[in-house]
Design goal:
Blueprint lengths: L1 E5 L2 E4 L4 E8 L7 E7 L6 E6 L7 E2 L7 E6 L4 E6 L8 E8 L8 E2 L3 E6 L1
Parallel strand pairs: 2-11
Antiparallel strand pairs: 1-3, 3-8, 4-5, 4-9, 5-6, 7-8, 9-10, 9-11
């Protein structure tokens, strides 16, 4: 089982960036898929996720209105469109999946670094 995240980079405040995550090794259609991030010196935090049906995305308050999470079950991918980035969004971003009837984010990608400069 592998989740491969990509798309990170160095951007300026106010810019946009899209992260992508490709999952392989099992069927993820029934999983929730989402994104977490860990800023330097801080604990990992939830960012956004979509359930297995793709309906009702949910977001951390800090990114509501700026980030959009989407998924393509046919391609086993989940994406995170990030707009109006600010320096507080600087972090390593991880994609993850949670089985439909589970309560734990079980599978994790390796992370991709997003750096937002002022």
């Amino acid at each position: 089982v592998q989740l491969q995240a990509s798309g990170g980079g160095l951007v300026q405040a106010g810019d946009s960036l899209t992260l992508s995550c490709v999952a392989s090794g099992r069927a993820f259609n029934s999983d929730s898929m989402g994104w977490f991030r860990q800023a330097p010196g801080k604990e990992r935090e939830f960012v956004a996720a979509r359930s297995w049906s793709g309906a009702d995305p949910y977001y951390a308050d800090s990114v509501k209105g700026r980030f959009t999470v989407s998924r393509d079950n046919a391609k086993n991918t989940v994406s995170l469109q990030m707009n109006n980035l600010n320096t507080e969004d600087t972090a390593v971003y991880y994609c993850a999946s949670k089985p439909k009837f589970g309560s734990t984010w079980l599978y994790w990608g390796q992370g991709t670094l997003v750096t937002v400069s002022s």
